[in-house]
Amino acid sequence: MAIKDTPEEWTVTATTTPFTGNKTSVRTDEVVMPDGSTVTRDYQVHPGSVAVVALDDEGRVLVLRQYRHPVRQKLWEIPAGLLDIPGENPLHAAQRELYEEAHVKAEDWRVLTDVYTTPGGCDEAVRIFLARGLSEAEGERFEVSEEEADMELARVSQDELVRGALAGDLHNNCLVVGVLALAAARLGEGLDALRPADAPWPARPFEA
Fold first, then answer.
1. Does the annotation count 148 as an active-site position?
2. Is the pTM of this model over 0.85?
3. pLDDT along the chain (208 residues), means of 10
4. Three-state DSSP class for 169?
């Protein structure tokens, strides 16, 4: 039997949205269980995100250090951002985030992996890209604000990031998943065997 996630949708008898925020909301569903009982499930409704493992010619990954208020920490992360436009091509969103957060462009794009960040309580889906052939973007730098105005930028080797993730020193979901996926891909069929940048993404369908 193939180990593969499959679509399924249990019956919902009622749904409400007790909170609506600027980017996300909270939904409450009454869900029918296999035994016929009904339970309440609260979860965050999220537009989806993209993230980028940007790998330079020296084998270093571009990372950013940013304050994250909910966890009261400055976290090392990879460039990432929301899918602000419904149906937006995730590659276009990833290219925008790499430009805005790091003023970098890339020649070669692949899909590294797709994940649900916290499927027990949120429907956020993230597509993590691998970007290679990096160079500085043209024009003026994007003007950042709020937490992003305090960001630090660094280029760190894959091995150092893997060690940090396994040692419990690095905690950002996309960074940890991204660098471990990068290491696994290199040990497997190689980076050129990764899916193309426009590979289908059922969790967040998009137009080419």
1. yes
2. yes
3. 92 96 95 97 97 97 96 97 90 96 96 97 97 91 63 96 98 98 97 97 90
4. coil
